[in-house]
Design brief:
The protein is α/β, with parallel strands linked by helices. The protein has eleven helices and 17 strands. The chain folds into two domains: 206 residues, Quinone Oxidoreductase, Chain A, domain 1; 131 residues, Rossmann fold (3-Layer(aba) Sandwich). The strands form four sheets. Strands 3, 4, 5, 8, 9, 16 and 17 form a seven-stranded mixed sheet that branches. Bound molecules: NADP nicotinamide-adenine-dinucleotide phosphate (NAP) and zinc ion (ZN).
C-alpha cells in the first residue's frame, strides 16, 4: 500500500486540511496517476458540507475532487491503453458493475452499482474512496480517460465533470445548428455549456443573476445575455427555446425558464440544489414541454467529449490556486465569484 498527501474535511463544519491517505498498489488492470490538477466542482462543496444528506450522506473524513488530470506513473501487467508518462484524466466514476444494461451500453454513469471517485465504498481498501485533492490516485484503466495533447492540463481538468455534464445532455437532446439554446447560471458547468452549445452551432443565450458577467458570457460564446431578474428581458424570450440547460446550484424558480421553451422544448436540470424545486403543471402542459435531468456521462461519451475539445480547442477558463486556498475558494463559490472554475495545482501539496 502507498500513501498519498491529501486535503480532507473531518466533519461538515470543518475546513479542509492537510492529511495522509492510503492508496492501493496498482493491480493488473490498474493505472497509477500523479495528479497535477484537480478542478473544484460545486458538488465537492455540497458533499463536504453534507448538503445532500438525504440522497448521498457524506462519510467523514472526505477527500473530494473528481476533475482529475495528471500523468501515468505506473501501470499493472494487464493494462493495454496507457503507459507511464501519458496525460490522463479521471472523472466522477472509478468503477461500476460492468454487467448491467447501462454499463453494457456505455452508460456507466447510470449503473445502480457505480463507485464514485470519492465518498463511495472502496472495494479494495475498505472505507470510502478518496478523490483528487491529493497527489496520486490508482484507477482501473477502464475508468481512465486520455487527455488530448494540445489541451492545457489545468484547463482540461474541469472537462472531466463540468465538461461531460454539459456536453452529454446537449448531445442527447440534439443541440445543433439552428437550435436556440439557453444556459442558466454562468458558473463552472454553465460556462462549459456555453462553449459546447456554441461549438455545436446553436444560438446561445445565457441567463445570469450576475450582471457583471455579461461581457464574459459574450466572450465565452453567448450571442445574447439576459439578467434573469429583469422580467421584461425574460418575457421577450417567452416560448422560444428548443433547449435550456439549468446549471444552478441553489434554489430558484425553474418555471421562469420552462415558460421560455417552445412547443416540445426541453429543459434539462444538471444543477443539483439540495431542496426540491417547485414545478408548475401549467408551465409544462401549456406547450407539451419537457423537464428532464442528466448526470455526468458514460466513459465512451466522456472520451468523445475530450476528443471534441481537442478538435475544437476547448478548455475551461480556470483560476489556478494552491491547495492552501481551497477553503477560501469554497467561500467564493458560494458567492458565485469564480471565473469560471478553480483548478487546484497539486504541486502545492509538496510543501505540506
Ligand atoms: P458553480 O460554479 O457554483 O455555478 C453555479 C452558478 O449558479 C453560479 O455561478 C450562479 O450563476 C448560479 N447561482 C448560484 N446561486 C444562485 C441562486 N441562488 N439563484 C440563481 N442562480 C444562482 O457550480 P457548478 O460547479 O457549476 O455546479 C452547479 C450545480 O451542478 C451544482 O449543484 C452541482 O452540484 C451540480 N452538478 C451536477 C452534475 C450532474 O452530473 N448533474 C455534475 C456536476 C455538478 P450566475 O452568477 O450566472 O447567476
Ligand atoms: Zn462535479
Amino acid at each position: 500500500m502507498n500513501s498519498s498527501k491529501a486535503y480532507s474535511a473531518a466533519t461538515e463544519k470543518s475546513p479542509l486540511a492537510s492529511t495522509t491517505i492510503p492508496r492501493r498498489d496498482p493491480g493488473e488492470h490498474d493505472v497509477q496517476i500523479e495528479i497535477l490538477f484537480c478542478g473544484i466542482c460545486h458538488s465537492d462543496l455540497h458533499s463536504v458540507r453534507n448538503e445532500w444528506s438525504e440522497f448521498m450522506p457524506t462519510v467523514y473524513p472526505i477527500v473530494p475532487g473528481h476533475e482529475i488530470v495528471g500523468r501515468v506513473t505506473k501501470v499493472g501487467s494487464a493494462v493495454t491503453k496507457y503507459k507511464p508518462g501519458d496525460r490522463v484524466g479521471v472523472g466522477c466514476l472509478v468503477d461500476s458493475d460492468r454487467t448491467c444494461p447501462n454499463c453494457q451500453a456505455g452508460l456507466e454513469n447510470f449503473c445502480p452499482n457505480l463507485t464514485l471517485t470519492f465518498n463511495s465504498p472502496d472495494k479494495h481498501l475498505g472505507g470510502v474512496t478518496y478523490g483528487g485533492y491529493s497527489d496520486s490516485i490508482v484507477v482501473d484503466e477502464r475508468f481512465v480517460l486520455s487527455v488530448p495533447s494540445n489541451l492545457d492540463l489545468a484547463g482540461a481538468a474541469p472537462l472531466l465533470c463540468a465538461g461531460i455534464t454539459t456536453y452529454s445532455p446537449m448531445r442527447h437532446w440534439g443541440v445543433t445548428k439552428g437550435k436556440k439554446v439557453g444556459v442558466v447560471g454562468l458558473g463552472g458547468l454553465g460556462h462549459m455549456g456555453v462553449k459546447f452549445a456554441r461549438a455545436l452551432g446553436a444560438h446561445v443565450v445565457v441567463f445570469t443573476t450576475s450582471p457583471h458577467k455579461t461581457e464574459d458570457a459574450l466572450r465565452l460564446g453567448a450571442h445574447e445575455v439576459v439578467v434573469s431578474r429583469d422580467a421584461n428581458a425574460m418575457q421577450k424570450h417567452a416560448g422560444s427555446f428548443d433547449f435550456i440547460l439549468d446549471a444552478v446550484s441553489a434554489e430558484h424558480d425553474v418555471n421562469a425558464y420552462i415558460n421560455l421553451l417552445r412547443l416540445d422544448g426541453n429543459l434539462t436540470l444538471v444543477g443539483a440544489p439540495a431542496k426540491p424545486l417547485a414545478v408548475s403543471a401549467f408551465s409544462l402542459i401549456m406547450g407539451r414541454r419537457n423537464l428532464s435531468g442528466s448526470n455526468i456521462g458514460g466513459l465512451p461519451e466522456t472520451q468523445e467529449m475530450l476528443n471534441f475539445c481537442g478538435e475544437h480547442n476547448i478548455t475551461s477558463d480556470v483560476e489556478v490556486i494552491p491547495i492552501q486556498k481551497v477553503n477560501e475558494a469554497y467561500e467564493r463559490l458560494l458567492k458565485s465569484d469564480v471565473k469560471y472554475r478553480f483548478a487546484i495545482d497539486l504541486a502545492s501539496l509538496k510543501s505540506e
